[in-house]
Write a structure and sequence with these properties.
globular; alpha+beta; 4-stranded antiparallel sheet; single chain
């Protein structure tokens, strides 16, 4: 991250950019004469603050955050939701990680933890893993933790949507209640206790045919009565405000902010 200073820096502005200590920080300074003080050297703010005037630039190192998925839609979603934080959001494909994790957990949380721990160990990066899915009341909770694999590995997203619709084709609207559930697990050496989890839920219903072209997975059939739209008809920012993943991520904001 590059911060251009237009006036003498105050303590508040420094805190805004997540510098942990007001006594000793790690930063890079490009002085007005072009001389560069390299990153990774500690400096006392008491010594340098009085020298920070117009034209001075702070260069903060960006921390990688691995989102443990190959689903490009999820990577884009997390990248968008984390756009205000100093993380470089990358997916498994971006780091060339081809390790496959068997999701043997019986719950969303168990699977999220399995993935986060495995990929954090493989990558050595701060890792965020989610396990999420559709829970349909009339189908006794299916697809549930099998949402991404519902009906077998040969089916794609559209096939799985059609499978759900076929199983529910005779059900009236009032029996079509459902919810999206997401559990996020954040794993890293600097994370308190090594791991923290957060859950988000979005209530809705399953309509009779797909509507909308945004989103992915079961979004085209997940109906939100308050919006009179499916989640596939929402814009990205609209979805972020209410989505199950957005709600789960907001539960981790405090932890993420503490890591910078």
């Amino acid at each position: 991250m590059v911060f251009v200073c237009y006036k003498k820096i105050t303590d508040n502005k420094i805190r805004r950019y997540n510098v942990k200590s007001l006594e000793s920080v790690t930063l890079g300074i490009c002085a007005r004469n072009g001389q560069i003080i390299p990153n990774n050297l500690p400096f006392s703010l008491a010594l340098i603050t009085r020298h920070l005037t117009i034209g001075v630039r702070f260069v903060f190192m960006t921390k990688k955050l691995l989102v443990a998925t190959r689903n490009s839609g999820k990577v884009r979603e997390f990248s968008r939701m984390l756009s205000g934080m100093p993380f470089e959001v990358v997916g498994l494909s971006d780091l060339g990680i081809d390790t496959e994790v068997e999701e043997t957990g019986a719950t969303f949380e168990e699977n999220a933890v399995i993935k986060a721990r495995t990929y954090a160990e493989v990558s050595g990066e701060l890792t965020l893993a989610d396990d999420s899915g559709l829970v349909v009341d009339a189908l006794d909770g299916e697809p549930g933790v099998l949402s991404a694999r519902y009906g077998g590995g040969d089916l794609n997203d559209e096939d799985r949507v059609q499978l759900v619709l076929e199983k529910m084709k005779h059900l009236p609207g009032w029996k079509r209640t459902a919810r999206f559930v997401a559990v996020l697990a954040l794993v890293g050496d600097e994370v308190p206790g090594g791991i923290v989890t957060s859950e988000g839920v979005l209530e809705g219903a399953i309509i009779h045919q797909p509507l909308g072209e945004n989103g992915f997975g079961y979004d085209p059939v997940f109906w939100l009565a308050s919006y009179a739209k499916t989640t596939a008809q929402l814009t990205g920012p609209e979805k972020d405000m209410i989505s199950h993943r957005g709600a789960a991520l907001r539960g981790l904001v405090g932890t993420l902010e503490s890591l910078n």
